[in-house]
Structure to design on (1040 residues):
């Protein structure tokens, strides 16, 4: 009973927030509604007994993907109102096409029936003896290892692509060289000197040289400095 | 588990990663060694393809047979030739980076997987691997707006096509209960196996695959991508993916959906007719050589699809032979286009070729051979390609297709031969630059193949016959 | 009576509520005294006295601070997005409390004993970034936004290696249930065989909770106070509480994954499990404070470098190594249920 109530509550919120994703005026609100939709979808997974999928949905989509969406939406000053003008102009056409498709699908669905052997040849029937995490692991990493690796290759290519198309060597970056920093010895950078009392420090020449040795006025600039220490 | 069945793909993927690592770690310009290593990897993969025995593995996800072997060799050949053409071009355009051969290599891995797919999931993942690599190489000249624009168009339309394909796959899975080709075939063979929903699913799958081979009505991306992409990428897109996509179409429609051929044959017939007519008519007004080749490719895909529409073993054999011929002619013509460079600048207009026969007779001769072959003039290779598919269509009683095919070939001959006329009759334009040796080599090799195809066609026809038999066996 | 609580829906709800209360009240007190402890520890490290005026040894200081916060006015900046501005601190604090639902304090003593407890914790901790991003964006202020950006990048980066560390622990356990994870450490606590992963995990928790030396989102000397620069009064207090509750949560997680949860060292049982659990959490918290007193703040590029170029390959490599050793020695745990 609770599960049924839960299902309707979550399903209604899911649909409502999905609608808000499309209709919200502020793009940031759209993304936040998208996140809400993800949460409700995860809850529906939980009700269906797929707790692993529910958690993964939150970790991957809410924890990583939506953060990037939010990032992009916040950084780009996209004027969505302007984009939406086009929607209104093309809405009638889209509506007509949609209705035709719906009509056709309706026609198809009247002839709805599964192939007689569909139930028998189902590839991964719900396991009874395993928790769904273990069952998913078996299917994903053992049975379909080939496809899993192939998907990995796709991601690798996407990574190469992203780097190739965007990475630029500007040559202006000042890199940290950890090795050199660690290899630095005190003797190279520190000098212990005895400073005569009241002599000031620029006389011994351990002050950093001025950035631009200006020919005129350098003297006058240095003088008050030298007079300062007591 | 019979994992060695995918040995060529595994070796190729691993060597791709090794080359990538080498390229990243190598201090100096890594593009030349990486190109060579990739060519070597292709060679090794070709040997492995030939030595892998028939069979299926990975829980019925992957299959190796005469058909897959035939197509894979063709894909590797096309990719290797395209890569060879890229060396000098990329250096000239300042895009010689080591990622280029690596991406080409991964695209080839994707195509080889597609060809060996025995399951809709394998099919989709292989396709996606190939497409994503292609999007990236299309945008490879990232400072050129044309290149980025082409990649964007390709990407958006490609994503749409992938969506259609996935939607179709999900419908098929929902109604038939499996994505495995063998299980689908038996489920659909049973009485009452095919419901209208399933047929809708198949239509979506066909739509997704037809995008791959850029046939009408999913051809819109072709001219822009052909024109905008760096020319070696155009060569590549014009050869290997077309072969792989066509092979996929052949296998998918004749193995799992073979029993429903009444449902899909009319569709393929229409696609084929549309492609032939559009390819012939739209190419007439083109002045840009690469754009013209795009429309020509659409037309050629139409001819190849006649073989599938015929739905017989002879038809499939014809389609495979057509693909072989098409790959070599296409690479040859593009080798010529890559050589079109004056004072270091690339030109692509047909009128720029005026009087080429006087300034560079060898290149003009090669162009003439390829163009005549494309037009289907005997005894060049293109003639035999067309002959086999038209014969198959006639044998299957598809007179409309055969007649329209012959008519569009005649129209096509007009614009191919017009280029020959520009090269041989018009007043000469300034001479073009010295050709790079690699380009001359590729042009000569494919030219010889095109001219002397008639002499050594027997083993190719026999191999195509064996490959076609697999799908009907 | 027992029947009512265990077998009727209303009873179960009341029971769960009581359990939650029994966990949250001590937790909030711990949070309050953690702020006190932090000031005392920092003072001790710097040879100062720390708070010593309000109450005996300054023990009432947290309550004085809390009262001050409550009676101040909450200011909402003019250009701020009001709803989100108010929502953000609630998210941060709420998440920090929510995560405790699955933490087992003793064998079987958790509010919810779910199959995928560790994933639940990971999910909740990966949501923590929203409180900060939303706060930064809704404040309509440069500094706040910069802080939010820093924090989002930082948390997303360190989560990756944290995930790998968790996976390597899971490999040794064969279950995602937190109770099982602790019980699997009866023979040896995981920080010994997985020592490098323990270090990676602990440092990542520092980054995940935005504690120094990874407190760039606040970076008070560079971007004044980062994402909560515009917050005041209770809203600010909620962020503050959330940060400390998160520290406690992360310490609890470290304890469960690596320090044997409620199990006593050397199999000792002369203290009850929850006491051992709390002692270990306190130890971890002390290390948190100790680190803060010792290390200067990382620069942004150093932070990213550490996360992506050191921790990620290290944890990935160790993960592969763990899997290899388990396979080679046949110690792969049997997957139950």
């Amino acid at each position: 009973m609770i599960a049924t109530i839960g299902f309707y509550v979550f399903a209604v919120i899911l649909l409502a927030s999905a609608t808000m994703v499309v209709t919200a005026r502020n793009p940031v609100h759209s993304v936040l509604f998208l996140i809400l939709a993800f949460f409700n979808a995860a809850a529906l997974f939980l009700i269906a007994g797929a707790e692993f999928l529910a958690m993964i949905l939150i970790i991957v989509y809410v924890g990583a993907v939506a953060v990037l969406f939010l990032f992009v939406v916040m950084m780009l000053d996209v004027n969505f109102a302007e984009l939406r003008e086009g929607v209104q102009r093309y809405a009638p056409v889209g509506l007509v096409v949609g209705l035709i498709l719906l009509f056709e699908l309706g026609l198809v669905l009247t002839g709805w029936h599964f192939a007689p052997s569909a139930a028998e040849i189902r590839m991964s029937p719900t396991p009874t003896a395993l928790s769904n995490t273990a069952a998913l692991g078996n299917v994903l990493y053992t049975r379909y290892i080939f496809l899993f690796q192939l998907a990995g290759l796709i991601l690798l290519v996407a990574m190469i692509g992203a780097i190739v198309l965007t990475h630029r060597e500007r040559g202006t970056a000042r890199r940290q060289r950890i090795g050199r920093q660690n290899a630095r010895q005190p003797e190279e950078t520190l000098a212990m000197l005895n400073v005569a009392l009241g002599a000031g420090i620029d006389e011994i020449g351990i002050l950093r040289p001025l950035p631009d040795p200006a020919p005129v006025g350098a003297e006058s600039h240095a003088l008050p400095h030298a007079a300062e220490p007591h | 588990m019979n994992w060695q069945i995918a040995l060529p793909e595994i070796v190729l993927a691993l060597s791709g990663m090794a080359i990538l690592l080498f390229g990243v770690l190598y201090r100096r310009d890594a593009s030349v060694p990486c190109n060579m290593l990739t060519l070597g990897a292709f060679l090794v993969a070709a040997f492995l393809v030939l030595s892998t025995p028939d069979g299926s593995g990975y829980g019925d996800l992957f299959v190796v047979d005469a058909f897959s072997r035939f197509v894979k060799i063709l894909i590797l050949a096309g990719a290797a030739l395209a890569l060879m053409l890229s060396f000098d071009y990329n250096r000239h355009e300042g895009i010689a980076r080591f990622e280029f051969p690596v991406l080409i290599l991964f695209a080839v891995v994707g195509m080889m997987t597609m060809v060996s797919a025995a399951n809709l999931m394998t099919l989709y993942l292989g396709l996606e691997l190939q497409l994503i690599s292609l999007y990236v190489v299309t945008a490879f000249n990232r400072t050129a707006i044309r290149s980025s624009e082409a990649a964007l168009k390709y990407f958006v339309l490609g994503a749409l096509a992938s969506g259609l394909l996935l939607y179709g796959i999900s419908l098929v899975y929902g109604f038939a209960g499996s994505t495995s080709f063998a299980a689908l075939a038996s489920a659909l063979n049973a009485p009452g196996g095919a419901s209208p929903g399933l047929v809708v699913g198949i239509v979506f799958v066909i739509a997704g695959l037809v995008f791959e081979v850029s046939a009408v009505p999913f051809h819109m991306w072709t001219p822009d991508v052909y024109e905008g992409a760096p020319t070696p990428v155009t060569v590549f897109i014009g050869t290997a993916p077309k072969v792989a996509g066509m092979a996929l179409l052949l296998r998918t429609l004749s193995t799992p959906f073979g029993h429903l051929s009444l449902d899909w044959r009319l569709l393929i017939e229409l696609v084929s007719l549309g492609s032939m007519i559009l390819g012939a008519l739209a190419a007439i007004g083109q002045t840009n050589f690469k754009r013209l080749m795009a429309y020509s490719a659409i037309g050629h895909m139409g001819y190849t699809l006649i073989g599938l529409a015929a739905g017989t073993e002879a038809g499939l054999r014809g389609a495979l032979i057509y693909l072989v011929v098409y790959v070599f002619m296409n690479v040859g013509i593009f080798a010529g286009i890559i050589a079109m460079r004056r004072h270091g600048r690339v030109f692509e207009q047909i009128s720029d070729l005026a009087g080429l026969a006087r300034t560079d007779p060898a290149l003009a001769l090669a162009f003439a051979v390829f163009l005549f072959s494309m037009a289907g003039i005997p005894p060049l290779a293109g003639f035999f390609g067309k002959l086999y598919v038209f014969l198959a269509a006639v044998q299957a009683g598809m007179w409309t297709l055969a007649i329209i095919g012959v008519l569009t070939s005649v129209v096509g001959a007009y614009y191919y031969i017009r280029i020959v006329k520009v090269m041989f009759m018009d007043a000469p334009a300034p001479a073009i630059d010295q050709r790079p040796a690699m380009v001359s080599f590729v042009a000569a090799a494919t030219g010889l193949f095109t001219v002397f195809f008639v002499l050594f066609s027997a083993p190719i026809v026999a191999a195509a016959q064996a490959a076609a038999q697999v799908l009907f066996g | 009576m027992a029947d009512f609580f265990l077998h009727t829906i209303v009873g179960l709800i009341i029971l769960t509520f009581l359990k939650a209360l029994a966990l949250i009240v001590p937790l909030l007190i711990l949070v309050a005294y953690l702020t006190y402890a932090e000031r005392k520890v920092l003072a001790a490290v710097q040879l100062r006295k720390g708070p010593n005026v309000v109450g005996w040894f300054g023990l009432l200081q947290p309550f004085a601070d809390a009262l001050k916060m409550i009676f101040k006015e909450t200011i909402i900046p003019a250009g701020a997005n009001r709803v989100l501005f108010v929502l953000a601190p609630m998210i941060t604090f709420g998440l920090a409390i929510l995560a405790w639902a699955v933490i087992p304090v003793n064998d079987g003593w958790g509010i919810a004993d779910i199959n995928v407890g560790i994933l639940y914790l990971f999910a909740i901790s990966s949501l923590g970034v929203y409180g900060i991003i939303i706060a930064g964006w809704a404040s309509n202020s440069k500094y706040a936004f910069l802080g939010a950006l820093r924090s989002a990048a930082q948390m997303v980066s360190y989560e990756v290696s944290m995930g790998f560390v968790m996976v390597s622990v899971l490999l040794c356990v064969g279950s995602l249930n937190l109770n099982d994870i602790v019980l699997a450490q009866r023979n040896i606590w995981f920080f010994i065989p997985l020592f490098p992963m323990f270090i990676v995990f602990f440092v990542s928790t520092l980054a995940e909770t935005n504690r120094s030396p990874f407190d760039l989102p606040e970076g008070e000397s560079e971007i004044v106070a980062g994402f909560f620069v515009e917050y005041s009064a209770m809203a600010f207090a909620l962020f503050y509480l959330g940060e400390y509750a998160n520290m406690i949560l992360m310490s609890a997680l470290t304890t469960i994954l690596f320090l044997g949860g409620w199990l006593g060292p050397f199999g000792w049982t002369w203290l009850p499990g929850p006491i051992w659990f709390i002692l270990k959490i306190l130890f971890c918290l002390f290390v948190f404070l100790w680190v803060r007193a010792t290390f200067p703040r990382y620069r942004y590029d150093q932070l990213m470098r550490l996360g992506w170029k050191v921790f990620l390959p290290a944890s990935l490599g160790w993960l592969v190594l763990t899997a290899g050793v388990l396979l080679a020695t046949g110690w792969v745990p049997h997957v139950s249920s």
Remarks:
- The two ends of chain B are 25 Å apart (CA to CA).
- Chains B and C do not touch (no CB pair under 8 Å).
- Residues 269-473 of chain B form one domain.
